[in-house]
Amino acid sequence: MEKDFPCVEPLQKDKRKEMNQTDFITAVFKRNTTCFRGFPDKQIAEDFIDELFFFLFGTHEKKLGQDKLEQQYESIKSTFSALLYELIKDEALVKQHTRSLFDAIPSIYQHLLLDAEAIVKFDPAAQSIEEVLVAYPGFYATAIYRISHQLHEQGIRTLPRLLSEYAHSKTGIDIHPGAQIGDSFFIDHGTGIVVGETAVIGNNVKIYQGVTLGALNVAKSAASTKRHPTIEDNVIIYSGATILGGDTIIGHDCIIGGNVWLTYSVPPFSVVYHKSEIQVRDKNPLPEALNFVI
């Protein structure tokens, strides 16, 4: 029977002690040259997505003429093709995937402008779309998501996740490329947001920092099932809220308050909030005794 993880060869404790530096470097070299065949180059992938993002939204592009922009766009295509060839080693398939991605870029660009407009419309601190495009981490994470989602839909493995994790490392926002997100998506602040692989998010949804759209069951056997919630149109989810489960549906036009924990569906036009008790007392010289158990 084939191993689930053929490149993993656990070492016995005594062998760990016996391995000298030369043996260790040999083992690392052997494993990396064998097991990472067919994986994209991480640095080239990051360079590609940065080049594409700054082509679409970088302030320096206004200094270039249209002919230079066309040359730059073709260069980005070439970078992507070279990156993808290392992954699939099939020139015809590389051309097909490259064409599919770049045919979709104009539509992705329009979607992203709608996302930026939503941020300007609902964030009082946002002064202009241009400010959002160059300075907002929520927009950046959404942009990388929309590009990586296109690659995910094309059936390309590993690369979409590599790009989404790059955005995660830069913004603190973790959106799986398999998630489905509608138009005019609004992320404010964004730090700590998690959107799982099978989450479905409608149009005009607003999400604040610390929100989790997660799974109730993280067992490997559930990998092919819908594990993450569905968020319908015009929903607002405030900071710290956690919504779990593939059968959980948040109806349209709901407001989910901060720190709410939900594992069941909510009908449209609902307001869900967490009620906590806060006690305030004065600092008198003889406060009530506090008992601590350590």
UniProtKB/TrEMBL annotation:
GO BP annotations, alphabetical order: amino acid biosynthetic process
Keywords, sorted A to Z: Acyltransferase, Amino-acid biosynthesis, Transferase
Record's keyword annotation contains Transferase: yes
InterPro entries: LbH_SAT (IPR045304), Ser_AcTrfase_N_sf (IPR042122), Serine_acetyltransferase (IPR053376), Trimer_LpxA-like_sf (IPR011004)
GO molecular function per UniProt: acyltransferase activity
Superkingdom of the source species: Bacteria
Protein name (database record): Uncharacterized protein
Organism field: Segetibacter aerophilus
Organism placement in taxonomy: Bacteria, Pseudomonadati, Bacteroidota, Chitinophagia, Chitinophagales
